[in-house]
# Entry
Amino acid sequence: MSDSTVVALSSPPGESGIAVVRMSGPDAARILGRLAPDAGSWESHHIKKTVLREISGEPVDEVLAVVMEKPNSYTGEDVVEIFCHGSMQVAETIIEEAMKAGAEMAPPGEFTRRAFLNGKMDMAQAEAVADLISSETRLQSRVALEHLRGGLSRRIGSIEKRLLRQLAMVEGSIDFSHEEDIGEFSREELEAEGEGIIRELGSLIETGIPGNKLRKGIRVTLAGPRNAGKSSIYNALLGEERAIVSHIPGTTRDLLRERIHIKGFTYYLEDTAGLAETVCEIEARGISVGKEAAAAADILLFVIDGSEEPKEEVLEMARGITHSDHLVLLNKSDLGLQIERAEFSRAIGIESVLEISAVTGAGMDRLREWIYNRTVTSRITRGSTQRIAVNARQCDALRRARE
# Structure
């Protein structure tokens, strides 16, 4: 337990209906009593309506407050939570008055740090708190909540118990080799159990990449020749006009990136400069940046103007796609395709081809469905849909355990 009492705003900063000020430490209840002298005694885990006052006696706000006595609190210490009106001025005044009464300002993550140090949660659960707070989709929150509820910890704990059992059998066979009631040590059983644990650790390690992608987002890059309609598709997927669209070749010269969500996953959608030979230094730089983005993408969407007879250089570009997770888009289907999807697929030797129109929206739902299906069936997020997705620190610890 810490000797200090800390205070901080526990709700997002800014104007809102309600703000939450939290205190944790041995003097939390005393400080609340100092700020709410009219409230009388406080019963643990019972919310009370009261008026908070400055140390001088001037009223600050009418609030709801609760005292949670140790160890039955988030941090394992005495905790006070104050629900005030969501004016930043009101919340800041409450924090200032609490500090005048003896509290210290809590640094970021201090409440969860104290919960970890006081044994209220393990490290995996503490990390899950941050993941849950920053989650943007239902899947992200579900994975974080599973970790917070001990899903990962239970799996690791099960492995630990199995190893300890094998260790006990080994040591027992050495120390009590002549005792008849001690089971005979089986080398084959030990090896089989060890190999099974190594495989289980490996399966957890494999969720490291999915976990990173789930938390930080998956890169989806639009690439292809000039005037194929990449920016129109970009705008259509975003649902708003973010990229300039025109009939002038080479309109997009820089890398554009925006965040979208599809069925629980966060994606970073990227629009790149059209691939072409050029003498313009600025456009050439944009094309180079686009190629780098396409090479680093998790999913590559290669866009072709399907309303024109494809030129040989365009076919060569498509044939040169080596990205493992890719889809070729025959755009501008509303103008009439000059080549059928099946014929085009044979011409470039790629099966993943989809006809769409960014203008009318035809095929856009199928495109979103393809992106989602590719996400959950490929290596990008394998394991994350099982609600176990380890982070970098956990992945490193699991590797060392396996070794």
